Amino acid sequence: MLDVRFEDEDNDADLADSFDIESNELDEETEDTEENIKRGLRKEEDFKREAQKVYEQYRTRFKKRFDWIGAAAFKETLAQHLQDDANSLMAILNKSGAWNPDKDTKLAELIRLVKKEYPVKKY
Question: Could you report how far apart the first and last alpha carbons of the chain are, in Å?
Answer without folding.
Answer: 17
